[in-house]
Amino acid sequence: MKFENKELILFDLDGTLIDSAPDLASAVNYMLRQLNLDTFDENLIRSWVGNGAATLVKRALLGKSDISDDIDTKLFENALDIFLSFYKDNLCVDTILYDGVEQTLKSLKSDGYKLVIVTNKPYDFVKPILKGLNILDHFELYLGADSLEKKKPDPMPLLYVANKFNIDINKCVMVGDSKNDIIAANKANMQSIGVSYGYNYGEDILTYNPTLKVDSFSDILKSFRS
User: Fold this and answer.
1) Measured distance CA(55)–CA(49) in Å, rounded
2) CB neighbours of 163 closer than 8 A, spacing ≥ 6?
3) Could you give the CA distance from residue 60 to residue 33 in angstroms, rounded to a whole number?
4) SS3 172
5) Cα–Cα–Cα angle for 186, 187, 191, rounded to 5 degrees
6) Which residues contact 166 (CB under 8 A, 6 or more apart)?
7) CB-CB contact of 217 with 100 (8 Å)
8) Residues that are catalytic
9) Is the dihedral of CA 180, 223, 116, 130 positive or negative?
């Protein structure tokens, strides 16, 4: 399908633009070693990524995706501090852009679209990663998990961006890899693109009814060009 009369494109970060799982896994396992706990394989940790740092740390402490079990508050707070401190200094060691991201962003920007990041990653980590991967200049704005009172899947960040640029929701598109992105877009009455790769806990992104599904980031460009 083709999107018409769009002006603003909002992008998720982890699992959509970048594969950050290797560096997140390194930070998780460093944290666990410091706490004298068992470490985990990167592929398992990859399945825990996508809901922000706090949730990732809780999953690592419990050793599973379900975080309904109680965790000692002091243990969690200490673990989160260790994780964030290590990750802050190791943001772009093995993190990479997915294929086609840099050229597609460049093309969209040159076509006149405003590009924005809306991620559940802590705000302070976003700029260093974008800068480290040489894509910072493509974006007009970036929001992190702690930028507003609520984060995805709440629609607040998406509505905030549209309002900030004074652009109607109908002229915006959200692009992401997980249910959080698509649910937020649907709640905001915003059209969306779900990418089939990334971190969506083994679920088909079509389950959450994106406007369009793509298998490659480069395919996004076709949807915005006649």
Assistant:
1) 8
2) none
3) 12
4) strand
5) 30
6) none
7) yes
8) 12
9) positive
What would the pLDDT profile of 40-75 be if each residue is shown by its tens digit? 999 999 999 877 889 999 999 999 999 999 999 999
Exposed e or buried b for every residue in 17-26, given b needs 16+ CB within 10 A?
A: bbbbbebbbb
Which phi and psi angles does 113 have, rounded to 5°? -75, 145
Q: Kindly state whether residues 12 and 109 are assigned to the same domain.
A: yes
Determine the structural domain holding residue 104 and report its residue range: 8-19+95-223
Residues 6+ apart with CB under 8 A from 155: 184, 185, 187, 188, 190
Lowest mean pLDDT among 113-127, 152-166, 194-208: 194-208
Residue 2 falls within a domain, yes or no? no
Return the pLDDT at 226: 65
The pLDDT value given to residue 201: 79
Same domain, 69 and 57: yes
Q: Which helix (H) or strand (E) holds 162?
A: helix 156-164
**Same domain, yes or no: 112 and 43:** no
What integer pLDDT is reported at residue 78 of this predicted model?
Answer: 98
Number of domains the chain contains: 2
pLDDT digits (tens, 9 = 90+) for 16-48: 999 999 999 999 999 999 999 999 999 999 999
